[in-house]
Each structure stands twice: as C-alpha cells, then as structure tokens.
Amino acid sequence: MIRWKLVALLALVAATVTPRVADASLVEIQNEAVRALAHVQERRFANGMTVVVQEDRHVPIVSLALRYDAGERNVPPGREGVAMLTTYAMVRVTKHVAAGEYNRYLSRAGATGHSGSTAADSTLLRVTLPSNRLALPLWLWSDQMAFFVDAIDKAQLDVERAALVNAIANEDGGPLSRVSAMLDEEIYAAGHPYHAIGRATAATIGAITVDDVRAYHERWIVPEHATLVIVGDVVAADAFALAEKYFGPVPRGPGAKLAPPTSTPLRGESQLEISANVSTPTVWIRWPTPAFYTDDDAMLDVAARLMTGIRSGHLHWALVDEKKVATAVNATNGSRALGSRFDVRVTGVAGVTPAALLAEVDAAFGRFSDGHVTEAHVNGALGETLLPRLYSFEHAAIRAALLAGYSTNMGTPSFIDKDLARFVPIDRAALARAIPRLLPGNKRVVALVTPSSSAPMGGVKSARNFKPAWIK
Fold it and tell me: Do the beta carbons of residue 285 and residue 343 sit within 8 Å?
C-alpha cells in the first residue's frame, strides 16, 4: 500500500490560509501523486482491448476496474435506459454463469466493492478481492463480453427491467427529480448525445426489447471499447498473461464510433417556470462548460468549492448567513467527456419568490470580482478540491478506476502529473477572470421552481421564457 505524507501536505495547504504558498503546496501534491501512480504498464491486445497493470505488493489483494467507453450517451433516441438495462442484465446472467450466480461467485471468493454502474460516458465494473483469486473476475467479465447475447431472453430481461425501474423510482422519486433533464434539454440540442440523458422512465425502459439490448451490447460492450485495469499484489507479466488468456480470444467488435456532437452554444438565458411539490421556492442554474481534464474544468472545480466549500463558501455566506433568503446553497462542477455542466442550486426561505431569489444569487456572483474573495479563500478552496483526491489515491480500487479513465479519455494511464498541473496556476486573479467568462449571467438555463402541493412527482414545466444575450 502506498503511503502518503498526508500530515505534511495537510500542513502545507493549511498554511495557505494566510500567506500565498499554494504553488509550493501544489507542486508537492503533484509530485506525491505522480509517485503514487508510478510503475504503471499498459498493453493493447490484438482485438483492441487495453489492459493496464500497476504492481502494489504490500497487501495480498488486487483491485480491478473494467471500463467500457460507452454509456447513456450511446443510446439510440427513444431507447433511453438501454445502457443501464444492459449492465443490469449482463452482471446477472451469461452463457456460463446462471442467473444470480455472479454476486455469489464473488462473495464466496472474499470480494468487496463489486459493482456495475452506467453513467453518461461510461460503463464501469469494479471489484477488490484476494490476489490469488484474480482469475475469477477475469472469467466472469470475459463471459459477459463474449457470451451474454445468446444467454439473455425476454423472461430474464423482464426480471432485470423490473429491478431497474424500481431502482430509478427509489433514486429519482424526489419532487425535483425531472428538473435536471429539463435543463439538459435546453443546454444540448436535439441529436446531441447528452440531450436525452436522464429521461429514462418506466415507460421508456418498458419499451426496450431483447433485440435492443443485444444490439447495444454487440455494438459497444466489445474489446475495442474496453479498458481493464489491475492494481495490487500481482506480477505485471503474469497479470497480462492471465488477461490475455480470458479476453484475447474475444473477437473485435464492429468498430462503432460515436458521431461527433454538434455544438450549439447558448445564445441567451432560458428561464423555465416549474411547479413542484416542495415547501419553499428553489432556483436551479446550469451552464454548459468545457470538457473534463481541461484547464477551465479545473478552474470550475475550485470555483465550486469557493462558492459553497467549508473554508470559502461565498455563495452560502451571502445568501444564507447575510441576506437570509436561502436555507441551502450547492455548487457542483459535473465534469464529462463531451462537455461539462456547472450547477448552482439554491433553496429559498418561505415567502421569497423564485425571481427575487435569482436576483440575490446574481448579486452574490458579483462579489467574486469586487474584493470580497481573498487569496486565503482561494487557497482554502484549492485544498478542499485537491486533498480529497490525494487521500483517495491510497485506495487501490480508486486508483484502478482513475487509471481506466485516464487511459480511455486521455490515451495514457500516465496522466496524473498533467491532471494535477492544471491546478497550479489557479489564484484569486485567475478565478476572478474565469467565473464571469465561464459562467456568464446572460448565457445559461434557469429553473424557477414554485411550490405547489398538486404538482406531479419530479416537477412540471409550465412556461419557458428566453432572453437573448444581447438584451441587457
């Protein structure tokens, strides 16, 4: 297990609360992270599959991540949910693994953290288990890749469909659960891979057929879209040989590629009037922002902490503590491959209107360039952004997923130095310039949510108002 100088690094970042020594702190963080993710080897098999191995011989365990470069963005229009449903089904049954046996095999082997998830850009399988059982997940996952299509039938798909519908109901059953999809529909034009993400419902999932699942699997769950990462108590040569044994014979897929999305920049501000079964008004603002691993995306990671972090929560201080017009403020930078999105969500107090709440939010945004923000605040936001990442690298499972993402998206698993270097130039002046440039007040989508006890679950849009950017 790689050991970090966490105490020293925490002291360095804590010191940045007063003097400006963040450059030295970030250089030290970067150097430690580079050392933590060293000794990484990568190979590409003849069928197009990428395999990454990092030896870490301190504890007799191994963590694996299998990432497919495909997710809900790869779903055909009208079949929202097919990527999630395919993942649900293939971890349940394949030709050589009976229904329900996947989890039992892993549990009996002492595995922990075994999961399968589908996001906008990817499908990720993860597991940690004793290193002498390394072959087990390789066999299970290769069976999912090569022998799933012939094993799935309508009866089994109906079982997985019911489980997925129930999971969506539990996760997205809140009074504002449909608002995010409404915002995305405004930000991304029809035909953009992200336009319909988040619109999977019981109805759309109910319309998915066995042929839909098979077609998606045969197109995207194939070697050329797969990156396997093995981190832990292994000899790299032996790990590569074992991976070749199980995945090497799987034939290459059809070479499907996602069409480059057409970019349609926002030409103004869209305001959506929404009724929802909430007790107080809410304002939810979303901006389309640059893709992940860009310098601007790093800037917005820090900006989110500057707005609502513990050391420097300027939006929270302004709206909750000073103006007392809100009870909660949250800012998040949702980094994604084809373009990120930055959200500010404010829960108002009873009696304030959504329009008045929005005006207070806009006034608070002006404080990022008028002297209220100090270098100490920015250094605190940098620390809150980077230290959790630094600490997380202690865990082999997190390193495995990170290396898979680097390899898939940046073309190399050895990207950590460039990743963290994006944060070194960030200071108060850089943020003061970046926030109005990346989060302009006249190019965004705003949901103005009014309480209504009769509103349907998830919220309902009653009106859309558009103001061109050139109108002040």
Answer: yes
